[in-house]
Each structure stands twice: as structure tokens, then as C-alpha cells.
Amino acid sequence: MQSIKSTALEPTKVELASMNIRQKLVRLIPVYGLLVFTILLILLFSILLPNTFPTMLNLRSILGDKAIIAILSLAAMTPMAAGRIDLTVGYGIVLWHILAIALQTTLGIDWRIVVVMVLLAGCLLGLLNGLLVEVARIDSFIATLGTGTILYAIALWYTEGRQIVGVLPKGFTDMYAWQPLGIPVVAFYVLAISFAMWVVLEYTPIGRCLYAIGANPRAAELNGIPNRRFIIGAFVVSGLLGAAAGLLLAARLRIGQASVGLEYLLPALVGAFLGSTTIKPGRVNVWGTIVGVAVLAVGISGIQQIGGAFYIEPLFNGVTLLIAIGLAAYAQKRRGRARAPATSDTPQASA
Fold first, then answer.
1. What is the rounded distance in angstroms from the CA atom of residue 251 to the CA atom of residue 172?
2. Closest by Cα among 163, 188, 165, 164 to 175
């Protein structure tokens, strides 16, 4: 039933205190290597493209384009913390953005009510996924792939392959178009969501329980953690964030079509998997996910400005996903080797 395992390899303060500078650098490279790589990419493209890349216009473009992917990556990351995976983050956004536009243009419902309705629908989807995984005992990959495909089919049935077009109120479109201080407002959404999730996962019992379940569900259950409740809650949060991303996509496109949305699935998963290789290697985490999305955003933007072909973006995402999964697996193996001596010397450790 476990699709993903969750462990951590970040060095402790006690461990770093006993090391010299060279040992510290070697130990910290896996932790902050991806962040350093992102900075190097920015410097490289700024040198190669001095007139287009290091500009405010390009910054606004990157923040606006990748904010939705960042929210979807955070949505996918939440069940991953508990050792599960949610593929509906890519399929659900197709239906949610169509639903948000159709409710306003066809039924004339106030946009504020529509926002609440879509968010509630996302929570219901997460609840359904959680029940399928924890009550029906269906593997999370299969369960969410099935529900996601059903959502996509509903979107195709409703639109009949056509676009949903209509006049949307300014208040709704401003959810994406507003630029306070010259920065797209969606970037502030991502920052607020990231900070809230970071606090919950790192400094509250909820986060510790989710990570404990992801690392060893049986041990977590023996320690009194209600696994089912936390896993279902993680899927509900994932559904909520996925619905929020759908609303922002609707405010951005201002039209609804079933052919839009699926291309967000792979980058969202890549961002979440890359996040498990940095900051806290071997364990999905909020700021690692943001760094993972930043690598995709900077890399794709720079390659496109250099003159990369249209197929470069999916190729870059696919290759990066394979690398991310490989690095995550390697980090978990290192974690296992690091734990082996401790477990083999249990009597001495107890003494």
C-alpha cells in the first residue's frame, strides 16, 4: 500500500559540530546542492541572455507561469509525506477550471460563491481518494489514476470537446491578473501556502505524524497514531490545493477547455519528487518542493529563450523526473546504510 517512503538525511547540529570544513561541505552538498544548482542556472542564463533573462519582465513571466505548478506540487507533496501519491492533481485541474467558468457564465452564480463551491468540490474529491485508499484498500497510484480519469471524462462529456467561453467578472480574473508591487499576486499565494504548510509539517504534531506514517506506517500505528485519519486528511488538503490551482487557471485563461490542464501533471510531480532530494534529502518537504519548481522554471525559461524547440519542455520535465526519482531512491538507500550500524548495535546503544 506504500507508494512512497518518507525518510530524512539532513545532518544534525551535533553531527556538523564534530566535522571540519571539508567534511561539512561534503555533508551539506546533498542538502543544498539543488538550490546552488538553481542559482548557477540563473547566473548562466543571465550571462548568456543579458538582455532578456535578468529582467523584471522575465521574472514576472516565470512567477506567473509557474505559480500554478508550484501549488499543484505542494498538493502532490502532502500525500507523499504520508507515503501515498495523488495523481488527481493533474486531472482535477481540468474539471475545476471548466466548472469555475461554467458556473459563472452558464448559471450566473456569483464568483465568490463559485470559488467556495469549487474548493468544496476539491475537498470532496480528496475525501473520496482517501476513502478509496484507506477504506477500500486500493493502492493510491491506482485509486487516484482511476478517479482522475473519471474527472477528465466528465470534463470531456460536459464540453463535448468545445471551449466554454463567457464574460467573467473582474474580481474573479483579478485573482490571477492583479500585480501588487509589480509582482503577480499568485506568487504571494504560493508564498503564503508554502509558509503555512512548512509550519504545520515541521512544527506541529500533524506534520510529525504524517512523516512518521510515511517512514513506517506500522510503527506509527503501534505508537497510537491514527493512520487512516491523517492519510485521508492529507488527501483532502491535496484536493483543496488542486481546486485552488484550477480556480487560478480559470482566472488566467478565461476560457474552459478539456485539452488544457493535463500538461500540469508531470511538472507538478517532478517538483514534488525533486523536493525530496534537497533541503531534507530523502523526505518530501515544502521548501525543497519550491526549489524543485524553481529549477524547472529557470531551466525551461532559459532554454526557450536560447531557442529550444517546442518539445524541449516535456523532454526536460521527463528527464528531470527520472533523475529526481533516482536521487530520491539513492538518498533512501544512504539512509538505510546509515541506520544499519545503529540497529546492529542496539544493546550498546541502550546501555
1. 6
2. 188
| Interval 16-45: pLDDT, tens | 667 777 666 666 666 777 888 889 889 999
pLDDT given for residue 336 in this prediction: 55
Query: What is the CATH code of the structural domain delimited by 31-335?
Result: 1.10.3470
**Cβ 280 vs Cβ 27: under 8 Å:** no
Query: Residue 91 in contact with residue 254, Cβ under 8 Å?
Result: no
Gyration radius from the chain CA atoms: 21
CA distance 275 to 285: 6
Per-residue pLDDT tens for 145-169? 999 999 999 999 999 888 888 889 9
Average pLDDT over residues 196-217: 93
Q: Which candidate, 264, 282, 305, places its Cα nearest to that of 214?
A: 282
Q: Rounded to an integer, what is the distance from CA 332 to the centroid of its chain?
A: 20
Residue 137's identity, in one-letter code, is R
